[in-house]
Amino acid sequence: xxxxxxxxxxxxxxxxxxxxxxxxxxxxxxxxxxxxxxxxxxxxxxxxxxxxxxxxxxxxxxxxxxxxxxxxxxxxxxxxxxxxxxx
Length: 87
Description:
Helix content: 55-70%
CATH architecture of the largest domain: 3-Layer(aba) Sandwich
CATH superfamily of the largest domain: YefM-like domain
Strand order of the largest sheet: 1-2-3
Order of helices and strands: EHHEEHHH
Largest sheet: 3 strands, mixed
Shape: elongated
Structural class: alpha+beta
CATH topology of the largest domain: YefM-like fold
Number of helices: 5
Number of strands: 3
Strand content: 15-25%
Radius of gyration: 22 Å
């Protein structure tokens, strides 16, 4: 869940907000004078986002995925049993 909170509320309730983020994967957008300035999210979620950005930002991998999708649409794919054999 993403909740927008004013910076004054963050100052007053910092530790409880951090607990909520850590325990239940809440995310908070901190606003100053109604404008978003920062986000508080769990470390685990941050790591997942960084890893996703690495994968999607890798031009070579993104191109490989596009080419694989084209192959699948053409029916140009291998069956797993043909690759692995009868294990």
